[in-house]
Amino acid sequence: MTDSPEPPAAEPPAARSSADRTPAAEPLAVRLDRVLTGALARVTGTSIGPYQTAVIRIGFSFTWLFFLLREWPHRHELYGPGGTWNWEMARRLVADNHSFTALVWSDGRLWFEAVYCLAIVSSALLMLGWRTRTMSVLFMLGVLSMQNRSVFVGDGGDNVIHLMSMYLVLTRCGQVWSLDARRARRAGERGRPGRDATGVVLWAATGLALATAQLLGAVHLSWAADGPLPGLGWATVLWVLWLVHAAWWLVRRYAPGEPRTVLDAFAHLAHNSALLVIMVQVCLIYATAGWYKVQGSRWQDGTALFYPMHLDYFSPWPALSDALTSSGVMTMAVTYGTVIVQVAFPFTLFNRRIKNVLLALMIVEHLSIAFFLGLPFFSLAMITADAVFLPTNFLRATGRRIGGLRARLPAVRTAALPAQRAGDGEASPRTLVG
Q1: Alpha helical stretches, state H, 98-217
Q2: pTM of the full predicted structure?
Q3: DSSP strands (E only) in 259-328
Q4: Torsional sign, CA 232, 233, 235, 238
Q5: How far is it between the farthest Cα atoms of the chain?
Q6: Rounded to whole angstroms, how far apart are CA atoms 34 and 37?
Q7: Tens digit of pLDDT for each residue in 128-183?
Q8: Cα separation of 415 and 279, whole Å?
């Protein structure tokens, strides 16, 4: 009689419970809850993309500063009382479109010079990362005041700076590569925050200036109208920001426990939301630009590049423009390539390698626009907007190289590097921004 096979041994209870806990056997609701909990902890527990936001802070403030200094001899014709678009015309337009600009509060030359110089100073200080929370607000007010005073001055890059100046207010753009980061590091070395008399004086001065403007009846500085959002006036927005800055200082100094944790969570959430809006905005710019080009007959037949490069206004180097457009194949390739890159870019964000290749192509494209078409400010604004997608490791490596160059200079050889460089060797988390 043949032996029958023995029945399999019973699985120990511990083994069964271990198998039941594997991700494959985990219920969908539990997995979804775990993913959502982790995502919420991520967006409220850390500010994503500190290097990317530092780059866009430096890039946009430098671009605007460069523009204001470049146009200093022509400032009165562009934005001041001596322009063709005079003060009364600007005031009527602002009354119609309800935009904000401090330059319609007075038609005096002294007031114009003060606002223009304040825009320059705030841009320079934001670029250096000094008091970035306050300077980002002043930078936004300077950008809005100038651009809304003369809406017909600009080349497209002004629209990008206009939007990004408002988004930057909500970001923690001074975490790295800033004087604020250096001050925070020194406070950490002391083990306690300093008295920060400068911050208190700056806070009091801005509050006094805002109260004075309201008491004098400044145009479009109301509580519930003519603001950035329906039902929300600029007075409400600015006073809320002013009070939030005060609350942040008080909590940091006198309540560093749970209140600080709660404020940090809200700050992380605002930063990450603004960063997401910036990325979506960049994608919309390229998507709309690409799809509108697809509908144009000159872009369809591959000749669109030829025409602007033969206009005197867009030909700073006529000989180079002629050489580039002398080849029909080259003209068609660059024309089609521009459309392909712009349309395809938003669809490549989740493939890191392809995204980085298209990002490099777009930066080259904007450098070519600056050189061949004579539009440096537009190109700088767009390259800065593209920088939000640069890989973190690349930005860290660039920072280390710049730090190495600084260390070789005799004047700054003993200067300490900001604290954020200490973690450059650590592996960065994989995020959409790199």
Answers
A1: 109-128, 132-149, 157-168, 179-190, 197-215
A2: 0.87
A3: none
A4: positive
A5: 115
A6: 5
A7: 999 999 999 999 999 999 999 998 888 888 999 999 999 999 999 999 999 999 99
A8: 35
